[in-house]
Design a protein that fits this description.
The protein is an alpha+beta fold and 441 residues long. Helices cover 29% and strands 15% of the residues. The protein is built from 7 helices and 14 strands. Strand 13 and strand 14 form a beta hairpin.
Amino acid sequence: MVGTFRPRRLASAALLGALALGLAACGGEYPNSTFNHNTDFNADIDALWDKLLFWGTIVFVGVEAALVYTIFRFRRRPGGATPKQVHGNTALEITWTAIPAVILIFIAIPTVRTIFKTQAKAAPDALQVEVIGHQWWWEFKYPQLGITTANELYLPNGRTVNFQLKTVDVLHSFWIPQMGGKRDLISNRTNYLWFTPNKDLPTSAWNGFCAEFCGPSHANMKFRLYTVTPAEFDQWAAHQKQPAIFPAVAAAPAAPVPSGVAPVPSGTGAAPMLLASAQGAMPADTGMAAAAPAPVPVWAFPREKLEKEFAYTIPTAKIPVSERFDESLLAKGDAARGKDLYNKSSCIGCHAIAGTPFNMAAVGPNLTHVGTRYTIAGGLYPNDAKHLAYWIKNAPALKPGSLMPTLGKGLTDPKTKMVVNVGGLTDADIADIVAYLQALK
C-alpha cells in the first residue's frame, strides 16, 4: 500500500516540536532573568506581568476560538446559498465593546497601582546612591558616606536604596535585571529609581548593564552589583571612606583591634592587611611617640562567591592588540617606582586617588581603592596584572571609542593616528604602574 503525503499531520508535528523546544528554552536558571523576587520592585513588576499575561491569554483564546468557529461554521460549501448581507448588529456590537472594557478594568487597576508605587519617592531613610553614566563606564557616589567608586556597586540587604540617575554625555539606561530596576539617564535631568534588596538574600553578585544604545562601546558598558549583609556593607564602607594609603603596611601584631571592627574575611580577593592611617606621626620635637591609629581592615566581596556565568569578562588571549605586552616584566614590577611614574604621567589629569596630592581629576574612574575591584574598563576585563597592563598600554584597541589614550611607547593611537613617543610608557614602566595600582587596596 502506498502512503499519502499529509501536510496537516506534518504541520502538527512541527508545531508540537517547536512548542517543546520553546518550553525547554524557558527552563533552568538564567543569570539575567527578571522573573524573580529579589527586591520589592522586582516582585511588584513580576506580579503585574502575571496579571497581564493571564488576562491577555484569556482574550487571545476567546478571540481565536470565535475566529476558528466563524471560519468553520460559515465557510463556503458546494451548492450553498449566498450569505445574507446585514448592516451591523447592535446587540453584538455592544457585547464586543463591553467585554474588552471589563477586561481593561482588571488590567488598568493593577497597572496604575504599580506605576504609582514604583514612581513614588523613596523612604526618607533610604541609602542614597548617585549614578553617573559616562561613555562607557559607571560612576557611583554615596553622598551620605563620602564614597566615590566606579563600575562596582555595593548595597546592604534589607535597606531601601534610592538611585539618582544622571549622565554627563549621551543617553544611558541603568539596568540590573535580577533586581528588576531599569531607568533611563537623560541629559540635563535627574531620574530616580529605588528598590529594597530582600533582607534574607545571601551575599550575592549580579550583572548590571547599560540598556540604551550610547555609542560604539555600548555593549561594553557593564557593572557589577554586590548585595551584602549590613555588617559586610559597614566593613566595606569603613574601608572605602579611607584615602588610598601607599605603601600599605601590616598592623603591629600587638596592636589591639577596636571593638566592632571585624577581621578581614578569607578569600576576599583583597590583600589581608590593615592599612596605615593617612595621618603622619607627631612632630619629632614633642618627644612623644605617635598614638597608633585605628586600623582599617580591607574588605571586598568574597571571590569564592562570584558565579561562573557572572560578568562575562574577556580573557587575555582574545585581546585584539597588535603589540603584545612582555608579561615576564609583571613579576618585576616595583610599586614605589610605579607611584612615581604615575604621578609624572598624564594619568593624573583624568583620575582621582584620594589621599594623594594632584590626583583629584574626575574625567575617568576614581582609582582610590582600585586594587579591591574585580573588573576594569567598565566591567569588560578582569582586574588582574595582565589585563591591567594591556589596558594601560593600549586602551582604545581593547575598547572601541575609549577616551583613555594609547600610552604604550611606539604605538599608534587609533583615534589620533599619531605614534606615541614623548610621554609614552615602556613595558617596564607599565609593569611598575600596574604594581602600584594593584597595591591600592
